[in-house]
Design goal:
heterodimer; A: 319 residues; 3 domains; 9 helices; 20% strand; globular; B: 384 residues; alpha/beta; Peroxisomal Thiolase, Chain A, domain 1; 2 domains; 9-stranded mixed sheet; two-stranded antiparallel ribbon
C-alpha cells in the first residue's frame, strides 16, 4: 500500500497488510497536568505507569517491553529515558525510546507487536514543560542555515500559520504543564482494539509548505483510515481528540481529517486540559479510550510535534 | 509477522570534521548509497527510522530538518534516541516495522556531527541530583569500570593495546573508517597520553562526523532485490540501572550484553558462539571494553579474554574475526555507530565488505552499547 497518492511501488504491494491484527488496549494511566516543580520526572512517570498497570489489572512482570517518548532538550537530559529506566520496568528488559510525541511511540509499539517481537508493551510519554524554555529550545528545531537565524520558534511559526489562515490575533497556546501518560497494548483479547494508524513528516521549510493545510496529516490519516476500513470519517467515527497545541489548530487538523463540524470533536476540551508537548497525543488516545469505554464505536486520537505540526500521527481505536 | 532482511547498506566517510556537508547532507549521502546498493530509490521506501543523539549537536528534534535528507517527506518517519545504542535500537525498530507486515521496505539512517557540538557537555547532562556533579563522560566512567575489570580479570595494558592496534589496522582496509593506522604498534598505544588511568588516548574511540544507512526488505521482496540478503535472525534489547554506582562491576558482569546475547543465541540455536558465529561487529567504545565483551558474548571463558587477543582468535584471519571494519575504536559518529555495526555485519553476510570481507561469512553478530550499560544484540544470517 502506497503512502502518498503519486507513489507507485515497483514491488508487490499485496505484501503489505491492509488491516491490523488484533491488538488491545488493556489499560491507561496519567498524572495530573499542572506545574509540578517539586516532582521529579521519574516520580511523574511512576504514577502514570502504576495507574496504567492498575487499570489493566497487570503487574510489571507481565509487560514484555516498553516504548517511551521524550525529547532530550525539553528535559535537559541526555538520553532522558535514562531517568525513567526503573519506573518503566526497563532494568534488564527491552525498551525503545522515540524522540517525539507519545502517540508516535504507541504506533511504533504496535509495529513491534505485529512483528511478533513482544506480546504486551507499555507505552509512556513524559515532559516537564514548565521547566523547559520552549521558545529558546524550539528555535533549535529549525535548520541552522535559513530558518533558525530568523529567530523562528514554535510560537512564531504558529503565529505565521494562524495569520495565513486569516487570523489577525496572535494564536493562543494551550497551558504548559508537567505530566506523564501511559498505556498498555497487548495481543491479549480485550474489548478495545487498535484498528488503524499512520504517521508522516511534513516539509521543514515553512516557506515551502502550504500552511493552510496539513498534507502530512492527510497522509497519516489516509493510512490509518485504510487500515481501519473507514471511508467516511465523519459518519463512522464516534469521537475524536485532536492535539490543538494552539487554538487555531483544532479546525485545521479537523479539516485535514475530513472532520469539519464533527460534533464529537475534543469533548475533553482539547489541550486546554494541560497535557504537555510529547504527552499530548498519547493523552488524546487515553481520552478516546475512556470515552469508548462509555460509548462503543470508533475513536480517533491525533498527535503532532515540531513547528506548525510538521510531524503528524493518527490512531484509530474501536470497541 | 514475517522475515525481513537487509538488502543494502551505505555510509559516508567518517572523519573528524565534515566541513563539506551539513547534517542533512550527511544523511542524504548515506541513504542514497544504501538505496543504490539495494538497487532501489527513495520512491520504494515505505518508512524511515532515524537515529541521532540531539544533545551532542544541541539541536531539538533534528529529524525535522534532517528527515528530508533520508527521504522522510510525507513518509512515516520516527527517530530513536537511546544514547550509544541509538543506532542498534533504530536498526531493531526498522526491523520490527518491516517484519510487522505494515511496510515492505524500511530505511534506517543514523548520523552524528560531533564537530558541531560539545559531546562531553552533552554526556554530562545526566541526572541533576545525584550524577551530574560527578559526571565525567565516557572516558571517566570507563576508567572507573576498567579498573575494577583489570583488578578482577588481570588483563594487561598491552593486551588492551593489542585490541586498539587490531582495530586501526583493520580500519586501514575500510575506506570509510576515520582512524586508519596500518602500522600502529602496542608500544605507540601505551606511549599515547593517559586520559584517565588506565585509558590511554589510543585506547579510546574518536569522535567522528558521519552517517550510515541500511535498507530492510520483507521476505518475498528481499530475495528478488538481493542475491544474498542478510536475514535478521534475532534482535534483543536490554537496558539497566540509571546510576553507575548501582551497577555491580559493570565490565565484569556486563549483564545486559550477557543476557541479550544468551537470548539471541537461544533464538538462533547458537550453543558455541566462537564456532557458530563467522564474524562479529561489536560496539567497543574503548579497547578494554572489547575484552570484557568477549567474555559477556561467550567468545571465551571468564577471565580468558586476554588470551583470546594474544592468540589472535579475533584478528581478520582468526577463528572469529571481531570488527573487521575497525569498529567504534576507528569510527564513532554516535548516532550512526550502532547502525554501522549492523550494516557492517550485513555487508559481511552479503559478501560486500570489500577489502575487509571475511570469506564465507554466513552468520554475523552485531551489538550496540549505550548509556552506562545498555545493550542491543542482533544476529544476521545468510539463511532465514
Amino acid at each position: 500500500m502506497s503512502y502518498t497518492h503519486n507513489m507507485s511501488l515497483t514491488h508487490s504491494a499485496s505484501q503489505v497488510n491492509t488491516f491490523l491484527p488484533p491488538i488491545s488496549i488493556l489499560g491507561v494511566g496519567r498524572t495530573i497536568y499542572a506545574p509540578q516543580p517539586g516532582t521529579a520526572i521519574a516520580e511523574l512517570v511512576y504514577h502514570a505507569v502504576q495507574a496504567a498497570l492498575n487499570d489493566a489489572g497487570l503487574t510489571m512482570r507481565e509487560v514484555d517491553a516498553r516504548v517511551t517518548a521524550s525529547v532530550d532538550l525539553w528535559d535537559g537530559l541526555t538520553a532522558s529515558n535514562v531517568a525513567i529506566t526503573e519506573v518503566v520496568g526497563a532494568v534488564m528488559q527491552p525498551e525503545a525510546r522515540v524522540a517525539g510525541d507519545g502517540l508516535l511511540a504507541a504506533c511504533h509499539a504496535v509495529t513491534s507487536i505485529c512483528a511478533g517481537a513482544y506480546r504486551t508493551v507499555l507505552v509512556v510519554a513524559h515532559c516537564k514543560a514548565t521547566m523547559s524554555a520552549p521558545r529558546a529550545l524550539s528555535n533549535w528545531t529549525f535548520d541552522p542555515i535559513y530558518q533558525q537565524p530568523l529567530g523562528l520558534d514554535d510560537f512564531s511559526a504558529a503565529a505565521l500559520q494562524a495569520s495565513v489562515l486569516g487570523s489577525l490575533a496572535p494564536p493562543s497556546h494551550a497551558p504548559l504543564a508537567d505530566g506523564a501518560a501511559a498505556i498498555i497494548l497487548s495481543t491479549a483479547a480485550a474489548p478495545l482494539t487498535i484498528r488503524g494508524m499512520g504517521w508522516a513528516l511534513d516539509e521543514h521549510y515553512l516557506g515551502d509548505r502550504d500552511l493552510t493545510d496539513s498534507i502530512a496529516l492527510r497522509a497519516a490519516a489516509q493510512r490509518a483510515f485504510a487500515l481501519a476500513g473507514i471511508a467516511d470519517a465523519k459518519r463512522e467515527l464516534e469521537c475524536a481528540e485532536l492535539s490543538d497545541h494552539f487554538d487555531y489548530q483544532r479546525a485545521l487538523w479537523a479539516r485535514a481529517l475530513g472532520l469539519d463540524d464533527f460534533p464529537k470533536l475534543n469533548m475533553s476540551g482539547g489541550l486546554d486540559r494541560g497535557a504537555p508537548p510529547f504527552v499530548a497525543g498519547l493523552d488524546c488516545l487515553i481520552e478516546i479510550v475512556l470515552r469508548l469505554r462509555e460509548t462503543p464505536g470508533l475513536g480517533l486520537a491525533h498527535g503532532c510535534w515540531g513547528p506548525a505540526g510538521q510531524g503528524q500521527a493518527v490512531m484509530v481505536v474501536g470497541r | 509477522m514475517r522475515h525481513a532482511a537487509i538488502i543494502g547498506t551505505g555510509q559516508t566517510k567518517h572523519t573528524k570534521a565534515h566541513d563539506d556537508m551539513n547534517q542533512a547532507e550527511l544523511v542524504r549521502q548515506a541513504a542514497t548509497r544504501a538505496l543504490s546498493d539495494a538497487g532501489i530509490t527513495f520512491r520504494e521506501v515505505d518508512a524511515v527510522v532515524l537515529a541521532n543523539m540531539e544533545l551532542f549537536e544541541g539541536r531539538a528534534l533534528p529529524e525535522m530538518w534532517v528527515g528530508a535528507g533520508a527521504g522522510g517527506y510525507l513518509k512515516p518517519a520516527i527517530k530513536i534516541a537511546t544514547g550509544g545504542t541509538s543506532g542498534t535500537s533504530a536498526a531493531i525498530a526498522g526491523y520490527h516495522q518491516c517484519a510487522s507486515g505494515l511496510f515492505d521496505i524500511v530505511l534506517v539512517v543514523g548520523w552524528e556531527k560531533h564537530s558541531e557540538g560539545a559531546t562531553q557537555t552533552g554526556m554530562a547532562m545526566v541526572d541533576p541530583l545525584w550524577d551530574r556533579n560527578v559526571a565525567s563522560g565516557a572516558v571517566g566512567n570507563f576508567a572507573l569500570s576498567i579498573s575494577q575489570y583489570v583488578a578482577e580479570r588481570g588483563v594487561t595494558p598491552a593486551q588492551a593495546a593489542q585490541v586498539a592496534v587490531k582495530a586501526r589496522r583493520n580500519a586501514a582496509k575500510n575506506p570509510y573508517a576515520h582512524l586508519q593506522m596500518p602500522d600502529l604498534t602496542v608500544e605507540q598505544v601505551l606511549r599515547s597520553p593517559m586520559l584517565a588511568d588506565p585509558v590511554h588516548r589510543l585506547d579510546m574511540c574518536p569522535q567522528s562526523d558521519g552517517a550510515c544507512a541500511l535498507v530492510y526488505a520483507a521476505q518475498g521482496i528481499a530475495e528478488k532485490l538481493c542475491a544474498r540478503p542478510a536475514w535478521v535472525r534475532a534482535a534483543v534489547t536490554r537496558h539497566d540501572q540509571p546510576y553507575i554506582g548501582d551497577l555491580d562491576r559493570r565490565l565484569v558482569t556486563m549483564r545486559t550484553l550477557r543476557d541479550a546475547a544468551r537470548a539471541a543465541y537461544h533464538q538462533v540455536g547458537i550453543v558455541e558462539p566462537r564456532k557458530q558465529i563467522d564474524v562479529a561487529e561489536i560496539y567497543e567504545p574503548v579497547s578494554y571494553a572489547e575484552l570484557a565483551w568477549y567474555e559477556a558474548l561467550g567468545f571465551c571463558a571468564e577471565g580468558k579474554a586476554g588470551e583470546l587477543i594474544d592468540e589472535g582468535v579475533t584478528e581478520m584471519n582468526g577463528e572469529l574475526p571481531v570488527n573487521p571494519s575497525g569498529g567504534v575504536l576507528s569510527s564513532n559518529p554516535v548516532g550512526a555507530s550502532g547502525v554501522l555495526r549492523v550494516a557492517e555485519a550485513a555487508m559481511q553476510v552479503m559478501g560486500r565488505a570489500g577489502a575487509h570481507q571475511i570469506a564465507d561469512a554466513r552468520v554475523a553478530l552485531a551489538t550496540g552499547y549505550g548509556v552506562y550499560a545498555w545493550s542491543d544484540v542482533m544476529i544476521l544470517g545468510a539463511d532465514t
